[in-house]
Q: What sequence folds into this?
């Protein structure tokens, strides 16, 4: 939607805290509470659009970058202020242990998370490709003025875009708490990988992001196994650099 | 501003020590001035704040206003060697900045005319400040810095009571040797995983050297990216090689992720020997302490022995009253350091630097008079205390207990660690 959200990692962190507190206060396992995290985050995304993004959309590129970057710093500091810098974990989640997929062992929480992520992807893809609102959203992303001329309420579409984006990270964050610790800085490690994945696939292309995600995951795992675990990100970023040198718009990007 | 803060810290101490110890009429004019350069502000200020009470306690023991009923401390009461000279402390702030530590050491020596320094907590500051003391020929006691290189520089005036990092790793291998004898088990292979910054790579280097020296085979030698998002590949490698002992060196985030990943992938190490830090941090113990059952770590201080050893209990009672919390590793080491210095000054019978240095060289304090669980304090030619002994603790039921050395252990070693499928 013409703007990169640098606070995406912090959204993830907030989603993880939502899932953590749902577990701590109401004993809701992340498997159960992830719709709640998605809803809370979607609301946050919607509010972010109306509170901040709307006001800088017309502004210069730098203003847009600094707005979401500032939001990221604010959210991180706020989390630190409210919940401290302590590391928290959801102990004894419902799903533990591992599953065997044709002789390959995978942690059950990780498997659940990836299945849920795939589900979220299919749902998002169907919504964007099949529903009228989804098509309107795509049209807005392609050309705001033209979409407005067709009678699409672009303002609403932008807000929806933000709500969906944040809602998706809500699902991811909640499921991540099944096997990852929570603390205010947790988003940083994932955000960078997320940007690389999206940029690798090409901004604005949802199926391409899925493919890029699989590529990044495979490269990371294979590099860790075959070369050295310490170098796995180096290989991922090297691949990314190679791709953007060859195709600056990403593998399947339009922009 | 910095001066102001420093002054704010120094003033109450100066006042407290002078007020608490009104000079008797017959007192001599002689005074023993000890400079303490510690982080009193900045990111590590807590360390200086936590150490301050032990210095005050030490000064009060020497000045005869505080009674610690153990022979070593009774001998120092009122500093009989100097006929009742009073100890005055000057605490200065170096903010954990090596250049400031150097400047403060210079100031303490040339302007405050201190007779000895106790300094500096951080290894990097100790490195620069001790150079100043060496140049001026002033006794310098280091109680807490753990970088091995500090005592390898051939300094004449530097004395370190604290163990350094190589001692900490040595204890793991001492444990392996003694444990094999005691339980009749065989330990042959080791798996090292370590984070890829200085802490991890130094730790692994020493572990590798010691493994070679004692004839263990390192079957996994794996650096991993610090603060990584996934440790699956690392744990799978460990699982495939299945070493007799897994020796992780991690900060707390990675340590927590390791616990989760080993459970998810059903990796069941028989023995885990961690390098302090992440595996002993309070968040680790609080959040995954129960899952990490059986994890062992080298540890600098046996806090579960506080109540069992009379001397540690006596000092802790004094400390807790002032600091509002129990004494822990660093203040305990600081106390040991300054008492060692006071003992040397008392035996020297003068504040002459060379006489104090000679007395330090001749130091011999038995272990039962120390709050640390060390054998004794005696310095080798480099100024390193050779009586130090690190301990091994093990997580049992969500809490760390001392399991080695066996003679001071509060619990037996759990071995092998129960497999994930057999838990609860």
A:
């Amino acid at each position: 939607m013409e703007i990169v959200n640098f606070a995406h990692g912090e959204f993830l962190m907030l989603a993880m805290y939502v899932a953590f507190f749902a577990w701590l206060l109401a004993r809701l396992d992340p498997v159960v509470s992830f719709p709640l995290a998605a809803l809370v985050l979607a609301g946050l995304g919607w509010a972010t659009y109306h509170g901040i993004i709307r006001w800088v959309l017309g502004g210069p590129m730098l203003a847009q970058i600094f707005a979401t970057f500032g939001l990221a710093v604010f959210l991180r500091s706020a989390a630190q202020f409210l919940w401290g810098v302590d590391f928290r974990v959801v102990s004894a989640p419902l799903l533990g242990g591992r599953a065997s997929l044709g002789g390959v062992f995978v942690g059950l929480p990780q498997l659940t998370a990836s299945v849920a992520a795939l589900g979220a992807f299919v749902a998002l893809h169907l919504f964007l490709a099949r529903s009228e609102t989804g098509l309107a959203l795509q049209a807005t992303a392609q050309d705001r003025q033209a979409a407005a001329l067709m009678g699409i309420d672009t303002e609403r579409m932008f807000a929806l875009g933000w709500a969906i984006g944040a809602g998706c990270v809500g699902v991811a964050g909640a499921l991540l708490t099944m096997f990852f610790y929570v603390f205010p800085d947790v988003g940083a490690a994932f955000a960078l990988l997320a940007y690389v994945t999206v940029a690798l696939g090409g901004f604005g292309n949802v199926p391409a992001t899925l493919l890029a995600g699989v590529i990044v995951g495979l490269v990371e795992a294979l590099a860790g196994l075959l070369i050295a675990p310490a170098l796995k990100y180096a290989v991922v970023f090297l691949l990314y650099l190679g791709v953007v040198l060859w195709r600056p718009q990403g593998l399947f990007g339009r922009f | 501003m910095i001066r102001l803060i420093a002054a704010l810290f120094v003033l109450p101490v100066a006042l407290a020590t002078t007020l608490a110890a009104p000079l008797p009429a017959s007192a001599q004019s002689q005074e023993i001035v000890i400079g303490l350069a510690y982080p009193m502000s900045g990111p590590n200020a807590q360390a200086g704040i936590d150490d301050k009470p032990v210095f005050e306690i030490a000064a009060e023991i020497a000045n005869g206003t505080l009674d610690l009923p153990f022979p070593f401390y009774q001998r120092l009461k009122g500093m009989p060697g100097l006929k009742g000279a009073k100890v005055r402390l000057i605490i200065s702030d170096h903010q954990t900045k090596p250049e400031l530590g150097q400047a403060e050491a210079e100031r303490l020596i040339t302007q405050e005319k201190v007779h000895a320094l106790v300094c500096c907590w951080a290894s990097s500051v100790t490195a620069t400040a001790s150079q100043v003391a060496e140049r001026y020929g002033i006794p310098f006691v280091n109680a807490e810095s753990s970088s091995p290189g500090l005592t390898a520089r051939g300094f004449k005036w530097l004395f370190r009571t604290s163990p350094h990092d190589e001692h900490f790793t040595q204890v793991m291998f001492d444990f392996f040797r003694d444990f094999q004898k005691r339980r009749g088990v065989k330990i042959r292979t080791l798996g090292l995983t370590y984070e890829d910054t200085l802490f991890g790579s130094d730790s692994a280097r020493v572990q590798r050297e010691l493994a070679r020296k004692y004839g263990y085979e390192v079957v996994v030698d794996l650096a991993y990216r610090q603060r990584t998002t996934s440790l699956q590949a690392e744990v799978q490698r460990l699982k495939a090689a299945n070493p007799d002992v897994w020796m992780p060196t991690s900060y707390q985030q990675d340590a927590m992720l390791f616990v989760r990943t080993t459970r998810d992938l059903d990796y069941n190490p028989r023995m885990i020997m961690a390098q302090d830090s992440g595996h002993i941090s309070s968040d680790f113990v609080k959040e995954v302490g129960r899952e990490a059952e059986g994890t062992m770590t080298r540890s600098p201080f046996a806090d579960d022995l506080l109540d069992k050893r009379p001397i540690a209990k006596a000092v802790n009672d004094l400390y807790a009253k002032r600091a509002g919390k129990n004494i822990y590793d660093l203040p305990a080491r600081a106390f040991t350091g300054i008492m060692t210095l006071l003992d040397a000054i008392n035996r020297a019978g003068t504040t002459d630097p060379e006489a104090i240095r000679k007395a330090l060289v001749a130091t011999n304090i038995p272990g039962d008079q120390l709050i640390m669980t060390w054998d004794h304090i005696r310095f080798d030619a480099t100024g390193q205390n050779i009586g130090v002994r690190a301990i091994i603790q093990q997580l049992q039921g969500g809490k760390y207990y001392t399991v080695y050395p066996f003679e001071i252990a509060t619990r037996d070693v759990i071995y092998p660690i129960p497999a994930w499928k057999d838990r609860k």
User: Anything to note?
Assistant: The mean pLDDT of chain A is 88. The radius of gyration of chain A is 19 Å.
